[in-house]
Design goal:
Number of strands: 3
Helix content: 40-55%
Shape: globular
Structural class: alpha+beta
Order of helices and strands: EHHEEH
Strand content: 15-25%
Largest sheet: 3 strands, antiparallel
Distance between the termini: 19 Å
Radius of gyration: 10 Å
Number of domains: 1
Length: 53
């Protein structure tokens, strides 16, 4: 799996949490999970932060 500090994509996060990518994007839009915005509509996640949240 990924390291605690590594930024991952929505696809990788969805696979790690056994959720759909659409669910990850919805949670992102609704601010239900922590994310890092890299640019316009480019988001990355830290798996450890999402699990803690």
């Amino acid at each position: 799996m990924t390291g605690d500090k590594e930024l991952i994509t929505a696809h990788v996060l969805a696979e790690a949490l056994d959720l759909s990518v659409e669910t990850i994007w919805r949670y992102t839009r609704e601010n239900k999970i922590p994310y890092v915005e890299l640019g316009s509509r480019q988001y990355r996640y830290k798996l450890a932060d999402v699990i803690k949240h």
